[in-house]
Amino acid sequence: MTEPVPVPSLPPPLPGDRPPGIQVRGVHAAYGRIEVLHGVDLTVAAGSVFALLGPNGGGKSTLLKVIGGQLRPTRGSVTIGDQPVGRRSVERLARTGLCSIPEGRGVFPNLTVRENLRMWTYRGHLSMRTVEERTYAAFPRLSERRKQLAGSMSGGEQQMLAISRALVTDPSVLLLDELSMGLAPLIVGELYELVAGLSGQGMTILLVEQFVSAALAVADRAAILVHGRIEQEGEPHRMAEAALGAYLSG
Amino acid sequence: MTSFLQYTVFGVILGAGFAIAATGLVVTYTTSGVFNFAQGAVGMIAAFSYWELVVGHHVPVLVALVVILLVGAPVAGAVVERVFMRRLHGATSERPIMVTLGLTVILTGVATIVWPPSNQYQLAPIVSGTFRLVGINLQYQQLLTIGIAVVLVVALRFLFYSTRTGVGLRAVVDDPGLLAMAGASPNVMSQYGWILGFVMAALAGVLLALTQEQSGISITAMTLLVVNGYAAAVVGRLKSIPVTFVAAIGIGLAEEYIIYYALPHVSQSLSSDITLALPMVFLFVALVTLPSVRLRAAGRLTTARVPRVPGGRESLIGGAVFVAVAAVFAAVFATTAVNSVPMLQLGGDTMTLGMVALSLVLLIGYAGQVSLCQFSFMGIGAFLMGKVAGGGSLLGLLAAAGVCALLGALVALPTIRLRDLYFALATFAFADAVDQGFFGDARVYGGPGVNVGRIVLPGLSFGGDKSEFLLVTVFFVLTALLVLAIRRSLFGRRLVAMNDSPAAYATIGLDLGFTKVAVFAIAAAMAGVAGGLYATVNQTVGTSDFEFFSGIIFVLFVTVWSVRTVSGAFLAALTYVLLTTFWQTGLGLVAGAGIILIGRAASGILGIEWLVTTFRMPWVRRRDDAGAPAAGGGSPAIGGEARVAG
After folding, report:
1. Has residue B375 got a pLDDT over 80?
2. Both A148 and A61 in a single domain?
3. Residue A12: inside a domain, yes or no?
4. How far apart are alpha carbons A190 and B587 in whole angstroms?
5. In 3-state terms, what secondary structure has residue A69?
C-alpha cells in the first residue's frame, strides 16, 4: 500500500524573480570518438515543463548532462537565462540554482538519509532543520528511515530522497533524468504529481523520460530525440503518437 | 598478577601507537577510497623531518611540530592528491595500489639519499619524566601517545558523522558527480581528505618515532611500523574509527601477551622470527576472518584497451625468433662482463625474472588478482633448488614448482572470498611474514647465502655460462608460450570473465574459488621455478635477492611497462636487472617516473596509443573493436574516464 505524496508548501516565488529559460544551440557532444549528439537545438520556455522523449541510445541523458555542465559539448552552446553554461563547474551551476537529478537514484548509498539531506544544504543558505522539515513533510516515510543507509532503501524511497533535493533547495531550473526507472507505475504517478506541483511553484523543468504518458501528462511541450537529433517538437497531445513511432522505429 | 597488569598496560600503550597509525589509514580510505600503502613512508618522512629540525637544526619542538603537521604534511597531501590521486577515482583496483606503493618507493628512495642509513638518528621524548601507576614505571611520553590516540578517535568520529564537511568527505567517495550536483566541489573535498590523511600519517610517524628511543629511527623500520596498524584498520573494515581503535588496542594486548607468555616456551631464534612476523600474522588472520565481501557486480573501465593475444603459430614463431636472437647475444657477449658481472649472468637474471613477471601477467593482467608475494615464492624456489638432492638438480626444480604451487594454493584458499585490495593486502602480509620469518632467519640463507651450483639435467651439462643462459631463455620462452596458451584456452577466458564481473561469473554457475586457487597456484609454481633457475644462474643466492621491497618494486616495473603482455614482462625484467646492476639507488626514482605514467596510462607504457601507433610495435597490436569507450557514464567532475553503465 503506497501512501499518497503530498506536495509540500514551498515559499512563493519572489515577485519579479522569474525562473530562467534554457537555450540549446547547435550542440554536438561525444564520448571519446563517438559523437552522440549531432547539432541539437532546443528552447525550454521559462517556468515551463519540457519533456524529452525517445528510444534508448538516442542521446537524451547526454543532452541533460551537457545542459547540467557535466559534459562539455564539442560544438554549440547552452544558455540558462542569460548565462552561458560554458566552462562553469557543476557545483557552481548547482549553487546558482540548477538542480540535476541523475538517472538511477541521485543519492549517496553509503550515507544515511539524514546525511544525504545534510549534503543538500550545500546549495544556498539552507539550515539542516529547514531541509529536514521540508523533506519529512513531503515524504513522511523518509523520516522513519532517517538513520538508514540510503543504499539499503527501496527504489521508490531512494527516488523520493533524490527528488527531495529539488523540493527543498528551491532551484530555478530542474533537470530530471528517468525519474520512473525501475519503479512501480503507482509510485511513478505520485512522483509526477509532485513534479506538476513543482512547476506550479515557478520552476523551469526539463525531464527525460521513457514513461511517455506520465511525462506528457505534466509537460507543457515535448520533443523526440532520435539518434542524436531532434526529430519532432510540439504540444504534448500531438507527441504521444510520434513518440510511439520513434520507439518502434528507433 | 602485577606482571599481568604490567603487560596489559604495555599492551595498551603499544595498541595506542597502532591505533594512531590505523586511524590514519581509515581516514584516507574513508575520504578517498584509496588504501594508502604510502602512509608509513609519509610518516617516515615526517619523523626524519622532525629529527632534522629538532636535532639537526635545534628548532624548538613545538615549532617543528607546527612546521611538519600544519605546513609540510598538508602541502604534501594537497600536491599528491592533485598530481597522482585525482585521476584515479573509479579506476580499477590495482592502479591505486600500484600508485601508493610507488609513492612508498619514491619516498624511501628520497629518504635514503637525504638521510643515509649508515648514520644514527636518535630522538629524545617530547615530554620527559616518569610516574608510577599500579606499581609500574611509565613515561609521560607513553601517556601522551594514549591521550592523543583517544582524542583523535573522538575528534575524527565527530568530524565524519556530525559535521557537514565530514559527511561531505565521505560523500565524495560514494559519488563525486552527485556531490558536485549538490553544490560542493568534489575536488576540494578530495583534497581535504588527502590533507587530513597526510597530517594523520605525519602525526603517527612522529609519535611512533619517539617510541624508537633506544634503537633510533631507520627508514625501513619507520615505513613498516605503520604496517602494524593494517590489521586493526582491516578489522574496522577501513571504515569504522572506533572499531579500528578497539582492534588496535586488542592487537597491542595480544602481542604483549604472546611475547611474554608464549614466546619464552619456544627457542630463542624462533621467538625473534615470530615477534617480527606477528603484525603480519594478525593482518592475515584479520583478513581471512572478515565477513565475506560482496561481489562487485559490474562497472569496469573500458578506456584501457585490451592487447591482442597472439595465436598459437604466431607465438611459436615469436618464441623461436627470440631464442635465435638470444643465441646470437650469447655468442657475441660470451666473455663480456659489466661491473665485473658476466653479461650472460645478467641475461640469465633477466630471463628468470621475466618468468616471475609472466606469473604477474597471468595473475594481475588476466585474472585481476594483485599479488605482492611473487618474490617470496621465488625465494622459496631458490632455497629448494639449493637444498633438494644436493642442489642444482632437476628434482630441486620439480620440488620448487610443486611446493610453491601447494603453498600458493594454501595462501589462496583462505583468501578466496577476498576481493581486490583485501587480496593484495593478504599477499602483502604473506610476503612480509616470509621475508621476516623465513628469509631473515640465519638458518635459512645464512651469512654467505645458499650454494646452488649449475643445473644438471640427465645427460646434459649446463656448466658454461652460455649453455646456462640458453637454457633459462628456453624456459622463459616456454613460460611465455604457456601463459599465452592459458590466455587463449577456456581457462584463460574464465580468468578474464572473473576479472570483468565476479558476480556474472558466479551467476552462470562457474566456481570462483577453484579458478582463483588454480591461477594462484600456477603463478606460484612459475615463480618457484623462476627462483630455482635464478639460483642456478647466480650459483649462490642470499636474503638480499628476494627482499620484500625489491618484490614490490618489481611488481611496479611490470605494471609500468604493461602487466597484460609478454613483452611488458620481458621489458620489466630487463629494466629491473639493468637498474640493479648499474644504478641501484635509481630504482626508486625510476619507479617514481613510472608511477606518474600509471596515473596517465592505465595499460602501462606499451598501452600508450601514440607510442604503439608511431613505432608500429606489431607484438602489441590492439583489437580495433575494443577501444571505444562506452557511452553513458563517467565522473566528469573528478577523474574523467568513461565507464560502462550499470
Report:
1. yes
2. no
3. no
4. 63
5. coil
